[in-house]
Amino acid sequence: MDFKLIFGLQILLSVVLVAMVTRWIVAPWLAGKPQSERLFWLTLPHATRHIGLVFLVPGIVSTSLPEGFAAMAGYGDFAAGVLAMIALVALRNQWPGAIGLTALFHIVGFVDLANALRHAEAIQHLGAAWFIPTFWVPVLLVSHVMVFSCLIRSVARWGNGYPPKYVSTTSSSHQDTSRCRRIRGKRRRFPSGCS
């Protein structure tokens, strides 16, 4: 069997497996949670993307791995991992603009993964790093798709006159902040979101 066929088959089967687990277990578990909390859990796996720096380590990957791919994949994953961590802190601490920052991260992260996957010439040189694109990347791709789905549904609901609970309709910024951070007089870990 050709190595490119094996590579593609492994990615496909991993995506199918992750999608099934997500449909059966993860999605029902997340369904009752506020939007910010759902986004937090779906962004969490991306905080491990610093693992992609392994593409820069000779011996783990073949010395014949194209340097352009190694640098793009390694530093791209590292930057995406740092952005994911910032998004997690923003969501956890209810920063203003946390949802937008998280959306930006997921767009950048998805483009980075798609860009790396299009480099078929690098496949045979991945060495021990073979398992990153064939196992971990499908987890990240499914997570990105779930986040995009959540955000698109939120925007669609908001456009239909149903703003998420954390969006205040008042003009006072003080009221906006207090509404986001306090519900029934108690500080919440995550603001309420679209359900």
Please outline the helices and strands.
Elements: H1 3-31, H2 35-43, H3 67-92, H4 98-117, H5 131-159, H6 173-181, E1 182-183, E2 186-187
Antiparallel strand pairs: 1-2
Helix pairs in contact: 1-5, 2-3, 2-5, 3-4, 4-5
Question: What is this entry, summarized?
Answer:
The chain is an all-alpha fold and 195 residues long. It has one domain (3-187). It contains six helices and two strands, in the order ααααααββ.
Characterise the protein shown here.
The chain is an all-alpha fold and 195 residues long. It has one domain (3-187). It has 6 helices and 2 strands, in the order H-H-H-H-H-H-E-E. A two-stranded antiparallel sheet has the order 1-2. A hairpin with a 2-residue loop joins strand 1 (182-183) and strand 2. The longest helix has 29 residues, at 3-31. The radius of gyration is 19 Å and the shape is globular. Mean pLDDT is 85; it is low at 167-188 and 191-195.
